[in-house]
Amino acid sequence: MTEERIDGLGVSADTMLFMHRARIADLVVRRQLPAAYPVKDYVEAGGLVSSGMVLPDLYRRAASYVDKILKGAKPRDLPVETPTKYELVINAKTAKALGLTIPQSLLVRAERADPVTDRRAFVGALAGGLLDAPLAAGAPQNGL
Q: Which residues are CB-neighbours of 46 under 8 A, at least 6 positions away?
């Protein structure tokens, strides 16, 4: 990151990286790089944005599989499932620190905006310097 200027960073889902998420987020923000992360924990640690699976939902679904197996179901008879819940989380404080304008199309899709968790407060905070237009009336209020 010091020899050549890059425009942004995408962090992959990896246990080693996850263990150092606060350090990674801090380094990336100090280098003034926008970065996207796989889960919200990075955003809660100061990262800019995450778009990924809702991990607690995956854990609940895994527990359902364990329950079925303990009740006698054969693992080979259970269907393979893929994640069904995803979330977009944006850190308003980091966006402002990076001088970024968050597109309105992302704001209306964001489930949360840490450290401001209320969507209206988040949109208001960004409108104070980052948004050109207010949130459209009747815009979808659900996540992805």
A: 22, 25, 26, 29, 91, 94
pLDDT digits (tens, 9 = 90+) for 25-47: 999 999 999 999 998 899 999 99
Could you give the CA distance from residue 94 to residue 49 in angstroms, rounded to a whole number? Answer: 9
Within-domain flag for 80: no
At residue 34's C-alpha, the angle toward residues 28 and 39, to 5°, is: 80
CATH number at residue 120: 3.40.50.2300
Name the residue range of residue 113's domain. Answer: 9-53+85-127
Distance (Å, whole) CA 13 – CA 17: 7
Q: How far apart, in whole angstroms, are the C-alpha atoms of residue 37 and residue 21? A: 9
Locate 94 and state its tokens: 């980091």
Its pTM stands at: 0.66
**Confidence tier at 107 by pLDDT (50, 70, 90):** confident
